[in-house]
């Protein structure tokens, strides 16, 4: 179990990141978009934690950073959902492509 | 306990004032203090923070909290600009124009302060974690600020778009930062620089480039530079004007500040082959600058909503500001500083005039029709801002532009294309800037402008006067910069020396 | 020590497997034993005997959401409290003051929510 | 005497300030523009008494870009100064501004704004000629842009907004190119001072390397920038529009002074900073000049509207400036400079008269006018005199300038000059056609000139004739230009 | 034995040994649930002055629960037409699995324990939170108004009481300096945490009851208003799994309280000759009795009281406890 190279974590993180990015850019439902953003952040977290153990210069900073990231990501999701709910009340939709009252 | 007291907490005094004020305001808000009083308190806090910062001007550069927070010439210089801008925007927000629009006006003030705090931390952060937290503090507060008109669909939509775009940007930046951390094993910019300067491995260089690009792209979202500008027009349009003014100025400039610091600190010293990573990456910055200038100015031509127009103009200005960054020279920092100052004054001024005349919530350019007849002074003030935005001599915008020019042209001839495009797009921008002049002076008036409240008068006057003063006697602005933030000494804090 | 670490998580996996297996086994066994005679009346949604009306997936009141938000805030707070508590002995008073400031900030948030009548469950 | 020049340049501010307190805008307009003229006369007087122009220069530190050990590096000074040529231009500006103030008396709506902008415009024009460094030059140069934009757009005729946009964009491009050139020079030499740059370029002691290609590029850019202003042939559309749409008072200044900034810039920067490059391209410049002369003249011939005739005539006459400069010898350059001043006066006179015409009859259509010599004898006389001056009748200023310019070119490029000279014939044709169709034949009757109209017209005419008869009035001061150019 | 197993290098053999042990535990837990329910009913009967189950399996109704389970096993299982079938089936599984999963970290005695995880306490709290998802999933999938309301209430209540629960144990973590449950038990050799952290105990106890959805905090299944709450549409064995989850949690929570506050298997001074397992069982029984007692004594709270109590009383008290503890530790330890 110890012999998973750092590349493995990095590749996983990149895959997660790309899935998240793809979803965030293409999905209609704003909730899914927000979740995809979380996915991207967590990919970064994975990187941070992997690096903090297996990086060129292992150190604890990465884990601390990831704690902060988790917090911030939670706050961001909370704010995002709060705004989404406000929007839903007024527009009855959570679809990103229906948010078009503002001029193109 | 010794440790607690031995730290030089005075360095963070400006931040502490803002934090204290934000907390105090949110508490006071619970006890039905008049909203106006809250606003005044907020302004007072920002001003006293500025005063505190000015008292710190002469202190040598130093750090606190294990090098995560530094107060050096760089941070002082840019923090001052942010605070000035914040004070002006707050002043602008004080009036009751959009009472019906912003029902939670008091929340505006403390969210504003937290956003400002985020921006201030960003200018001073010397550590990726602090930087990230500052960035997010700014972002999250702005998301809510944009959506503060809870019942207004446009505001909701704008906020949602901002959250999504901002969230993606944050995630990208974070991903880039994670690589930076991985390659150096530290989150502290100074240490990072030291580690990277020693590295010579080729594969590291590749990863560094990726890290650079990711971080850069994420931060560019904040600046609303093309092609990552999509959110800006919608958000500017949907947000209440005082928020738009904040986003267009303080928030945007904070993005520049942090970009300058981490890129100059981390990448410009990192060897990559024969040059540095920064040198290799300049082409991307240049491309972005060009794209922003062209897209911003061209698309602005067909906008009929002033806020959208100003949004695109802001995109273009972000492009202008990227030019000295892309063509790093001895003039980069001071030119950007001065241009930011000028941009702050003229943008906030323009938003203030817009705020004064479009109280019915109509942001169409036709709100300016016949303004000269209705309110000559307002029209003249707007003319000053417009001319400054367009870069006509006699205004701060001109000096700033010349300096940016100088920064780009003093260097190698291969960079000449950037200023050339800058100039060409400036000419394009004349078309839409002068259209406002045309409307103000040539068209018939529609409705009367009712009395402008005192706070708007103050904002407009201050902005107009300083736009002119900085245009005619720019030495005033430059002296502040050159004398207090000597470039050669202490400008970037690099550890105990 | 590392073995303990790995084995411990192996145990967690074992428990997870069992936790999933038990319902599957039990329900499969039940399927063999129990009768299956569905009728329309049986499969109607229960609504105290009357015909179901409206969609059941109604919109929730925003207060649920507000509580969820509060939960997120305070739950994340514990992300910081736990490491602090574990390492408190080494950190000392400095960390205590820092954490106090942090928690007071959050308490202000709670107070704010309280005063703004968000904590009211009607 | 140091303060004299600065007083002169900023003297219109006095008028601007008094506009704020009084309602008698017309009076303020005239007195406010009279004051700069008085300043000009004072300076001229002391020049005649033996004070050299150089003693009027004014230097003070302004601001600096960058924080360098060496104090003078990238320092921008506030420096004003004159030589003979630029002083003559300033004099011309002061005269024309006063006449424009007279001509502006029939502006009814928003007169206060009109005069305010006129004063701003005047500061800009005076400053352009007095500026001793590039940045200051540009500063004043651009000051005229918004002022003109508003003047043309607000007080012009039906299509004036398009005209003002046209003006804005063309000149915006021009000044953009100019700024690029200036800042490159600044960046390469570390100074904006005109002399400093000249020395640096000649000695090759610049901060950054200035290659020959770069110099050539800079010169071409300068030529285009000032060519737009002048205007040269393919870049002239905006100028016709402005001439046609703008109020006469504005066109007076525009045709009289603003176009001349192009010529002034070509002489001062093109010829002054890049003499070799100018020399190398002289042939092509001459060609462009000839094209301008012929194109302007031919198109003027077929116009049915006096405004357009005058507009194309301006293009034609600016061609002569180019021809004179391209000759690169004393006669040619002298001719060009004479042409600059003289056409300023002539064009101003003609547009002043045109303004009267439009005020009386609300048209400038040649077909609708006629027989004015009978009903308005004074007007007819002035018009005729102006026309004669324009076509280069000996004894008028126009003759000397055209003569000298062609003389110069005949010495260097006789064939080109010969073709260009054809333009003079065409000029005679269109001027006579236009003037005669207004003064003779049948047409409406109108009130003849009143005193307020006679004074400026007569003053302009007197100056035209004075220069024509005593060329040394102009030739003396501008001798220094020729020294400057080194020929 | 477990300790040695833990220290061997991981391979399939140890894996299967653990599997066997875990199955044993599972059976034990199932047994506990069977008799726990019976005990509860009996105690309730006793307290309410009645007899309780007494028909199946002798005077004490020893086979009552067994009979109940068998009945459920052969009962027809109905899935409503309107339900979201996959989620409906998934709901009970998601609810049950974490309930069993948390048992992995609880040290019953010195020898009888499983995973030795540094963050054991955090693990417990984190994993136990997942059950809420199962409940909401089941409730939502039922497509029934009562279910949905019950599910939402369950979620709201559980997250609200999770905060004080989590906060209250920070005092213990502070004192121990570790989140490993073993360390926590060993740290109580001299004095149990219930004496050092009485406030934390109270908060934890109340929050635990709420987390277990037991009276007086059984709003999610308040039969007087919501029929049966989130499992209204469930029948047969699927329903049984919700119940099972609840009782496994009951077991786990009781064990946790024993471990955290009562010193786990550690004996009372001078009585060390009695084996740890007995001590643990004793303490466990006491806690369980109190929990049942609690249930019988208190009436159900009103929904708004319930929520506000959590946020406005328990949370501040828990936070205050943390800082008092930290301060006291700074001053006296």
Task: Describe the 3D structure.
The complex is a heteropentamer of chains A (104), B (497), C (122), D (487) and E (333). Chain A has 3 helices and no strands. Chain A is an all-alpha fold and 104 residues long. In chain A, helix 1 (6-26) runs antiparallel to helix 2 and helix 2 packs antiparallel against helix 3 (61-91). Chain A is elongated, with a radius of gyration of 17 Å. The model of chain A has no long low-confidence stretch (mean pLDDT 84). Chain D has a domain at 283-487. In chain D, 77% of the residues lie in helices and 3% in strands. Chain D contains 21 helices and 2 strands. Chain D has a two-stranded antiparallel sheet with strand order 1-2. The longest helix of chain D is centred in the C-terminal third of the chain and has 32 residues, at 330-361. Chain E has 14 helices and no strands. In chain E, helix 4 runs parallel beside helix 12. Chain E is globular, with a radius of gyration of 20 Å. Chain E has 333 residues and is mainly α. At the B-D interface, helix 17, helix 18 and helix 20 of B face strand 1, helix 6 and helix 7 of D.
Structural class of chain D: mainly alpha
Cα(first) to Cα(last) distance of chain E is: 35 Å
Percent strand of chain D: under 5%
Query: What percentage of residues of chain E falls in helices of 4 or more residues?
Result: 55-70%
Q: What is the element string of chain D, with H for helices and E for strands?
A: HHHEEHHHHHHHHHHHHHHHHHH
N-to-C terminal Cα separation of chain D, in Å? 30 Å
Shape of chain E: globular
Oligomer class: heteropentamer
Low-pLDDT runs of 5+ residues of chain E are none
Describe the protein's topology:
The complex is a heteropentamer of chains A (104), B (497), C (122), D (487) and E (333).
Chain A: H1 6-26, H2 30-54, H3 61-91
Helix pairs in contact in A: 1-2, 2-3
Chain C: H1 2-33, H2 40-43, H3 62-86, H4 88-91, H5 93-115
Chain D: H1 2-10, H2 12-21, H3 25-48, E1 58-64, E2 75-80, H4 84-103, H5 111-130, H6 134-155, H7 160-189, H8 194-203, H9 212-229, H10 237-245, H11 248-273, H12 275-280, H13 282-302, H14 306-327, H15 330-361, H16 372-375, H17 377-391, H18 397-412, H19 414-439, H20 451-469, H21 472-485
Antiparallel strand pairs in D: 1-2
Subcellular location (chain C): Cell membrane; Membrane
Keywords (chain C): Cell membrane, Membrane, NAD, Quinone, Translocase, Transmembrane, Transmembrane helix, Transport
InterPro entries (chain C): NAD(P)H_OxRDtase_bac/plastid (IPR023043), NADH_UbQ/plastoQ_OxRdtase_su3 (IPR000440), NDAH_ubi_oxred_su3_sf (IPR038430)
């Amino acid at each position: 179990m110890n012999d998973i190279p750092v590349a493995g974590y990095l590749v996983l993180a990149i895959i997660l990141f790309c899935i998240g990015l793809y979803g965030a850019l293409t999905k209609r439902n704003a909730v899914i978009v927000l979740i995809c953003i979380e996915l991207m952040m967590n990919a970064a977290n994975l990187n941070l934690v992997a690096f903090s153990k297996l990086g060129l210069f292992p150190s604890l900073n990465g884990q601390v950073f990831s704690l902060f990231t988790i917090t911030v990501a939670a706050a961001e999701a909370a704010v995002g959902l709060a705004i989404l709910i406000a929007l839903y009340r007024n527009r009855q939709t959570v679809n990103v492509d229906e948010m078009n009252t503002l001029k193109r | 306990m010794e440790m607690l007291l031995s730290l030089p907490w005075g360095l963070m005094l400006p931040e502490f004032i803002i934090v204290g004020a934000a907390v105090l305001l949110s508490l006071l808000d619970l006890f039905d203090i008049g909203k106006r009083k809250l606003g005044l308190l907020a302004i007072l806090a920002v001003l006293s923070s500025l005063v505190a910062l000015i008292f710190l001007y002469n202190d040598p550069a130093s750090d606190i909290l294990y090098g995560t927070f530094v107060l050096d010439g760089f941070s002082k210089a840019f923090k001052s600009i942010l605070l000035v801008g914040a004070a002006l925007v707050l002043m602008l927000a004080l009036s009751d124009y959009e009472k019906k629009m912003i029902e939670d006006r008091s929340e505006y003030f403390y969210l504003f302060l937290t956003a400002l705090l985020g921006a201030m931390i960003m200018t001073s952060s010397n550590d990726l974690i602090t930087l990230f937290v500052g960035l997010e503090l700014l972002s999250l507060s702005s998301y809510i600020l944009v959506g503060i008109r809870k019942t207004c669909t446009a505001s909701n939509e704008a906020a949602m778009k901002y959250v999504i775009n901002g969230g993606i940007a944050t995630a990208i930046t974070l991903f880039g930062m994670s690589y930076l951390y991985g390659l150096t094993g530290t989150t502290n910019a100074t240490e990072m620089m030291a580690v990277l300067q020693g590295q010579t491995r080729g594969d590291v260089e590749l990863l560094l480039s990726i890290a650079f690009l990711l971080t850069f792209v994420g931060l560019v979202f904040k600046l609303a530079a093309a092609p990552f500008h999509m959110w800006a027009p919608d958000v500017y349009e949907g947000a209440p004007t005082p928020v738009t003014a904040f986003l267009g100025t303080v928030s945007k400039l904070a993005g520049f500040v942090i970009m300058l610091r981490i890129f100059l600190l981390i990448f410009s010293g990192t060897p990559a082959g024969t040059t540095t990573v920064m040198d290799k990456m300049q082409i991307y910055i240049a491309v972005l600058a060009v794209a922003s200038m062209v897209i911003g100015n061209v698309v602005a031509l067909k906008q009929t909503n002033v806020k959208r127009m100003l949004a695109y103009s802001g995109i273009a200005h972000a492009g202008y500001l990227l030019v000295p960054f892309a063509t790093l020279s001895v003039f980069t920092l001071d030119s950007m500083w001065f241009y930011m100052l000028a941009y702050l004054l003229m943008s906030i001024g323009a938003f203030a005039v817009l705020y004064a005349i479009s109280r019915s919530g109509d942001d169409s350019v036709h709100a300016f029709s016949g303004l000269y007849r209705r309110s000559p002074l307002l029209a003249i003030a707007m003319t000053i801002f417009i001319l400054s935005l367009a870069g006509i001599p006699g205004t701060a915008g001109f000096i700033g532009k010349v300096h940016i020019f100088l920064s780009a042209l003093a260097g190698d001839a291969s960079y000449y294309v950037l200023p050339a495009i800058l100039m060409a797009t400036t000419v394009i921008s004349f078309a839409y800037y002068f259209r406002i002049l045309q409307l103000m002076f040539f068209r018939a008036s529609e409705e009367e402008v009712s009395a402008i409240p005192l706070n708007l008068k103050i904002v407009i006057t201050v902005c107009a006067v300083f736009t002119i003063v900085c245009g005619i006697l720019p030495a005033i602005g430059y002296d502040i910069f050159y004398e207090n933030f000597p470039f050669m000494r202490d400008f970037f804090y690099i550890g105990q020396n | 020590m590392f073995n303990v670490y790995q084995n411990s998580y192996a145990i967690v996996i074992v428990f997870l497997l069992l936790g999933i297996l038990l319902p599957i086994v039990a329900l499969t066994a039940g399927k063999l034993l129990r009768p299956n005679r569905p009728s329309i009346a049986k499969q109607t949604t229960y609504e105290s005997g009357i015909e179901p009306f409206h969609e059941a997936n109604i919109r929730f009141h925003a207060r649920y959401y507000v509580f969820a938000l509060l939960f997120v805030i305070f739950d994340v707070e514990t992300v910081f409290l736990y490491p602090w508590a574990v390492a408190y002995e080494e950190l000392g008073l400095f960390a205590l003051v820092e954490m106090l400031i942090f928690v007071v900030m959050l308490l202000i948030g709670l107070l704010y929510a309280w005063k703004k009548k968000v904590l009211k469950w009607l | 005497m140091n303060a004299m020049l600065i007083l002169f340049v900023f003297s219109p501010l006095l008028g601007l300030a008094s506009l704020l307190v009084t309602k008698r805008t017309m009076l303020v307009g005239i007195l406010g523009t009279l004051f700069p003229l008085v300043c000009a006369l004072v300076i001229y007087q002391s020049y005649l008494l033996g004070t050299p122009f150089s003693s009027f220069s004014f230097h003070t530190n302004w601001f600096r870009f960058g924080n360098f050990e060496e104090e003078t590096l990238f320092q921008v000074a506030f420096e004003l100064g004159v030589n003979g040529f630029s002083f003559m231009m300033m004099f011309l500006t002061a005269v024309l501004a006063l006449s424009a103030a007279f001509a502006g008396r029939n502006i009814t709506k928003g007169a206060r704004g009109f005069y305010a902008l006129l004063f701003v415009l005047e500061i800009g024009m005076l400053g352009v000629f007095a500026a001793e460094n590039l940045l200051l030059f540009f500063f004043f140069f651009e000051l005229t842009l918004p002022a003109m934009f508003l003047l043309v757009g607000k007080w012009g005729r039906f299509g004036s907004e398009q005209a003002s946009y046209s003006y804005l964009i063309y000149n915006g491009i021009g000044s953009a190119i100019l700024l690029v050139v200036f800042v490159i020079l600044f960046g390469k030499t570390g100074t904006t001072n005109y002399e400093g740059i000249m020395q640096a370029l000649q000695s090759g002691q610049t901060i950054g390397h200035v290659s020959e290609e770069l110099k050539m590029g800079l010169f071409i850019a300068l030529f285009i920038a000032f060519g737009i202003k002048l205007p040269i042939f393919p870049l002239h559309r905006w100028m016709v529009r402005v001439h046609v749409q703008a109020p006469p008072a504005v066109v007076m200044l525009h045709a009289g002074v603003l176009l001349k900034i192009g010529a002034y810039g070509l002489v001062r920067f093109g010829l002054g900073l890049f003499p070799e490059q100018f020399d190398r391209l002289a042939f092509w410049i001459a060609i462009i000049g000839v094209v301008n002369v012929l194109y302007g003249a031919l198109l003027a011939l077929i116009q049915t509207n006096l405004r357009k005739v005058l507009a194309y005539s301006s293009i034609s006459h600016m061609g002569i400036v180019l021809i004179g400069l391209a000759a690169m010898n004393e006669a040619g350059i002298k001719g060009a400079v004479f042409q600059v001043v003289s056409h300023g006066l002539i064009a101003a006179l003609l547009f002043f008269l045109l303004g009267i015409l439009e005020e009386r009859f609300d048209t400038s259509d040649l077909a609708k006018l006629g027989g004015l010599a009978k009903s308005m004898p004074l007007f007819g006389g002035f018009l005729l005199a102006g026309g004669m001056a324009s076509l280069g009748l000996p004894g008028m200023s126009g003759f000397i300038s055209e003569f000298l310019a062609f003389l110069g070119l005949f010495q260097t490029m006789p064939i080109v000059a010969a073709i260009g000279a054809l333009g003079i014939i065409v000029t005679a044709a269109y001027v006579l056609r236009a003037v005669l169709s207004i003064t003779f034949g049948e047409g409406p009757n109108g009130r003849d000139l009143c005193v307020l109209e006679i004074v400026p017209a007569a003053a302009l005419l007197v100056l035209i004739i004075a220069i024509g008869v005593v060329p040394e009035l102009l030739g003396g001061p501008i001798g220094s230009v020729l020294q400057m150019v080194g020929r | 034995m477990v300790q040695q197993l833990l220290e061997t290098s991981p391979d399939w053999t140890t894996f299967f040994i653990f599997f066997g042990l875990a199955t044993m535990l599972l059976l034990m837990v199932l047994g506990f649930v069977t008799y726990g329910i019976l005990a509860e009913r009996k105690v309730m009967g006793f307290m309410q002055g009645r007899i309780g189950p007494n028909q199946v399996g002798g005077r004490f109704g020893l086979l009552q629960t067994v009979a109940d389970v068998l009945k459920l096993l052969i009962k027809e299982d109905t899935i409503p037409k309107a339900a979201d079938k996959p989620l409906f089936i998934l709901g009970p599984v998601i609810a049950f699995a974490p309930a069993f999963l948390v048992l992995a970290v609880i040290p019953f005695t010195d020898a009888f324990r499983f995973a030795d995880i540094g963050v054991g306490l955090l693990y417990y709290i984190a994993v136990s939170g997942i059950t809420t998802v199962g409940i909401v999933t089941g409730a939502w999938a039922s497509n029934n108004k009562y279910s949905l309301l019950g599910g939402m209430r369950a979620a709201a209540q559980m997250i609200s009481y999770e905060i004080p629960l989590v906060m209250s144990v920070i005092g213990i973590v502070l004192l121990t300096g570790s989140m490993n449950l073993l360390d926590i038990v060993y740290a109580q050799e001299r004095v149990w945490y219930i004496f050092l952290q009485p406030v934390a105990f109270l908060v934890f106890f109340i929050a635990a009851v709420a987390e277990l959805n037991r009276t007086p905090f059984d709003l999610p299944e308040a039969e007087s208003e919501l029929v049966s709450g989130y499992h209204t549409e469930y029948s047969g064995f699927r329903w049984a799994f919700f119940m099972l989850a609840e009782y496994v949690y009951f077991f786990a929570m009781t064990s946790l309280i024993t471990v955290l506050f009562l010193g786990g298997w550690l004996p009372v001074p001078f009585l060390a000759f009695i084996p740890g397992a007995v001590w643990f069982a004793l303490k466990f029984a006491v806690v369980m009795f109190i929990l049942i007692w609690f249930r019988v004594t208190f009436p159900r709270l009103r929904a708004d009281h319930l929520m506000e109590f959590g946020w406005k009383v328990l949370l501040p008290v828990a936070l205050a406890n943390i800082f008092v503890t930290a301060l006291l530790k700074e001053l006296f330890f």
